[in-house]
Amino acid sequence: MRRFFVAATWLCLAAPAFGQTYGNCGQTWAVAQPPQRIVALNQHSADTLLSLGAGDLLAGVAYIDDDGAAIEHGAYRAIPVISRLYPSAEVLYSQHADLVVGGFASAFDNNLTSRATLGANGIASYLMESACDGRSLDFFGHIRNDLRTLGALVRQPERAKQLIARLDADLAGARALHDESRVLSVFYLDSEVNGLHSVGTRGFITALLAAAGGRNSFADVDIPRLNVSNEVLLMNDPDVILLADAVWSPASRKRHLLQTDPLLSRLRAVRENRLIDIPFAHLVPTPASGAVALDLAKRFKAMAGKR
Length: 307
Description:
Rossmann fold; 6-stranded mixed beta sheet; about 20% strand
């Protein structure tokens, strides 16, 4: 461990003068030069960088959410998976990254891998804007900011503009399908382990469902995350149930619970098979979120027509 701190101190002393500043989480940060080796902590941060055409710069990715094959084979879209969850400090520093991008604030929780410590050791960092403390509920605005900032850092500003235009076009397409007279209530089931985990008004799911013309059935609960009892969900009785498909909580397992539980099997959405499986990476803010909203809008419109 002493050797680790000596190496970290050398990195700090050896870091060249900062050459580019960028805004992130309400602060101004700096990077010494255009990144050449990037580590993405969380699948959706890797997806954002890949959409920007920065695949050649990605040295590694950690914490894959919904691609079990990537975990098994140690590569996500040809990028080495350096850790099933968040990497240890030793593993992260051994990647010799000059930029670390996190999708959730938990990516930088550890003191040795905090943004301040990384910066002190000459490693720039970026946290997806939707995960910043005190962020607004304008999640699609956060995606645009991520694209502009990361696009500039990886020298792909035009690609960022194209992705923003595509995002806006998909959102407009979704809005065109809205039927205000038939807004479906949707319960989002994130995990079924130790209760039914969902999100309230402050979660991205609320914004995503609204963009698709639906309504989070627990949008009146003013917290990001909540745990719903079987009895409360039965009283809520949503039109549709959205099932996150993740390696730690597969959609198939959620379906089995809903269809076999004595109470939950009485839900209208279960009885009428209005259950939608969706990869977890589609349920967090990324450049693909407009396309996800458009796809959900089409499915909601079809379901509303059958009511």
